[in-house]
Amino acid sequence: MATERTADGIQAPLPGRCGYFVEKKKRYCKMIVAKGKRLCGEHANAASDSEGDKQRRIPCPLDPKHTVDEDKLERHLKKCNSREKPKPVYYVKDINGGYEDAIETPRQQVSICALSKQELETMVTKLLKATDGLNSKLTDQTLTHKALQEALNDPKNGDFAFKHLKQQASLAGNLERMGLLGSNRCFVEFGAGRGKLSHWIDLALRDAENTYFLLVERATTRFKVDGKHKNRGSVFERLQVDIKDLSLGQVPLLVRKRLPVVGIGKHLCGVATDLALRCLMESYKTNLEDTGKEPPEKRLKGDEMCTLGDHKCLSNCTVDITEKRSPVLGLAIALCCHHRCEWRHYVGKEFFFSHGLDAEDFRIFQRMSSWATCGMKRHLSGIGEAEFDKTNQKEQLEEHDFEEESFTYEGTLTVEEREHLGHLCKRLIDQGRIYYLKQQGFDSVLQYYISPSISLENVLLTAVPLPKIQ
Question: How far apart are CA 148 and CA 359, in angstroms?
Fold first, then answer.
């Protein structure tokens, strides 16, 4: 059947569809209309004044991106998807915030470009002094895992997918190296997104039993991969909550199962890493210790002993919490975007104070950390393409939210000097995290887990409980 067109050649409205002409798209709206109506709900209000329609639509007060019939507003507010929903039992406002005071002012933005030459030199001197003796050359622990080999060799995966698969394979390989892949535990993926990292770790677990995954993500996510595991032995559960407000010890699954946890994350941006560390090290352990009932004892099969401190955790082990062992088996978090850290949430305040540094110094170093990628400009212009792929690097700029200041500041330093100082700022901030983890009884290290040609943010923070002194 030929498509009907108006005199000016524009396709006429389809039967049963909205008769509103969308000027921007040069066509009629294709939304289905209610019986007896000429316009859809969104466009009825636009034509009401000119046509004298009695029904008037107004923006929803909860979310002005959509409209509602004015006389049906009260009923709409009760079922609007933008209404405030009841908080889950594991929501405890700011439990992982780490505020020093009850009231905190918003983060103060510090512009490095506004610093005078003398002020900049003072900050560089402070940075070099604080990092003197700090090992900035990290060990390369780029690994892989056979669970991802088929996907890595699949030619259908493009460069972008390959980049992420390489990182996920190395993370799985490092978890295996640390003895953290095993039965009777719960993996908590912070900033889970679609849940791809948990997906591959589940496949890497092979014959493991009694394994659970909690995927923490504050935003609603499309194209999740959780459904691929419905017929497998593992259990996947999503927690839509900000890490800052997550009381891990009150998650129903963990309350019932009393399982030890392994914290994981791939490119956990800035402040989210600090919130995740405090969530694991403080709120989860505290909740377990404060529960009135003693948890049921959990022993290893064959009465074998777990040697977590020596990184020899057996594949079928679990933690006997009644013996006051740590309920956190370990963690592996790929770090990212230090320029998005916040002093009020930072776990390494004590480390900074011990080096004579304060909040203002932190904020400047935080901004200077973006210099670690300031050499991207020359890579994007075609220099060094043998090592850096231009398309992938542009994708990384969007993915990691690199700030424009890292490219535009020309000051008194060369590009190479700014890159070096930017990396030192990252190491200094991360050293505060390591200090915090050691205070919590964990052996923590930084290492490279992937080549910079795959991701510029290629540092992995790992931690396992320190061996107990007999």
Answer: 43
